[in-house]
Amino acid sequence: MSSLPPLSPEQLVKPRHFELRMGLIFFTLFVPLGTHLPYFPLWLQAKGFDAEQIAVILAAPMFLRVVTTPLLTALADRASDRAQVYVALMAASLALSAGYFLTPTYAIVLAVSLALAVVWTPHSPIADSLALSGVRRFGSNYASMRKWGSISYLCANLAGGFILSRTGAQAVPMIIFVAFGAALVVGLIAPRLGRPRRASPLSATDIQQSAPKLLNAYFLYFSIGVGVITASHAFLYGFVSIYWKSIGIGDQVVGLLWGWGVVAEIGMFMIFTRVFGSFSVVSIMVMAGIGAIVRWIAFPLVWPLGLGVAGFFAVQTLHAVSVALVLIGLQKMIGETVAEERTGAAQGIAYFSNGFFTAVVTLMSGPLYDRFGVDGFFAMIPIALIGLALIGFAARSAPQRRIGR
C-alpha cells in the first residue's frame, strides 16, 4: 500500500469554529430523520395506504440505498471537497421532498421515496467523514460534535408529536421539507477541508479491495447476526406509531414514547464503559438479542394487561439494550479484530448487512400488521433468535487474541 499523500498547507489550517459548525451540521442533519421515522407511516396511513403498501414504500428505498450510498460516498471522496457534495445532495433532498406535496397516489409516493433515499442517505456518512477529518488533522472531539445529532433527533421526535397533535398527520411532508431547507442553509457553512487523504468508510473501492480479507467466519457470523438482530426492529419502526394511534394514544404522547427510546439509548452510551466495558463483544450482543426478544414479547401484552402508556414507556427503555448495545458491540468488535486499514471495508459490510436484512423484514411487516396487528411483534422473536444463533456461531470461531492497538 502506498503511503498517504501529505496534507497541503491549506489543509493544515483549521477552519474557524470547526467544532461549532460541525455541531450545527449534525443538529440539522437529524431533524428530517427524527420526523420521518416515527411519523411518516402515520401520514401514509392518513392518505389511505394499507399496511402492505406502507411496507413497500418503507422497504423499497432501503434496498436501493444499500447499493447507491457506497457509490455516492465514493464520489464524495473524489470531489474537490466533500462539503460541496453534501450541499448538492441536501439541495436535491429538499427539491425531491417537495414531491410529497403532489397528489399522493401510490406510484407517486413510492417514486418520490425511492428518489429521495438515493440523495438523503449519504448525508450522514459524508458529515461523519468531515468530522473525522477534523479529528485526524486538528485533534477535534468527534463525540462532542456528533452528540448534537442525537439531541436534535430527540427534539424532532418531541416537536413532531406536539405539532401533529394540533395539525394532524398532513403536516409531516411540510415538516420534512422545512427541515431539509434548514439543513441546506446550515450546510452552506460546512467546513471546507479539500480532498480526503483516504477513502471514506463506505467507499466502494475500499470494500472491493479489502472485503475478501474480512471473509472469515467470526466476522461474517457476527456482522450478519448484528444485521438480523437489527432487522427484528423493522416491525417497530414501520408500524408502532400506527398501532399506538389505533388504541387512542395521541400524537404528542407518541412523540414522547419515541423520544424516551432515544433518551434510553443516550443513557447507555453514557454508562457503557463504566458498566459493560469489561464484557466481551459476544456477551454484549447476547444481552442485546435477549433485550430485543423481551421487547417483542412485551409489546403486544402491554395494552391487554392494562399497563397503559406507562407500560409502553417501560418497554421503550429496552431501546438502550436492543439498539444501543448492538451499535456499541459492533464497533467494539471491529476495533478489537479488524486492522485499521480495513475498518472502512468492515463498516461497509456491516452497513450492507443491517440495511439488507432490515429492508427484507420491513417488507414482511406490512402483511404481518395487516393480518395480526400488534401481535405481529411475536414474529420478530424468531428473527432475533436467528440473530442470537449467528452470534453463537461467531463465538465458536472467535480469534484467539485481539488485534494490537
From TrEMBL:
Keywords: Cell inner membrane, Cell membrane, Membrane, Transmembrane, Transmembrane helix, Transport. It is found in: Cell inner membrane. The chain crosses the membrane at residues 20-42, 54-76, 108-127, 171-190, 218-240, 252-272, 279-299, 305-328, 349-369, 375-395. Its main location: membrane. InterPro entries: HcaT-like (IPR026032), MFS_assoc_dom (IPR024989), MFS_trans_sf (IPR036259). GO terms for cellular component: plasma membrane. Pfam families: MFS_1_like (PF12832). Coiled coil: none annotated. GO terms for molecular function: lactose binding; lactose:proton symporter activity. It is a multi-pass membrane protein. Residues 21-379 form the Major facilitator superfamily associated domain. This is MFS transporter. It comes from Mesorhizobium mediterraneum.
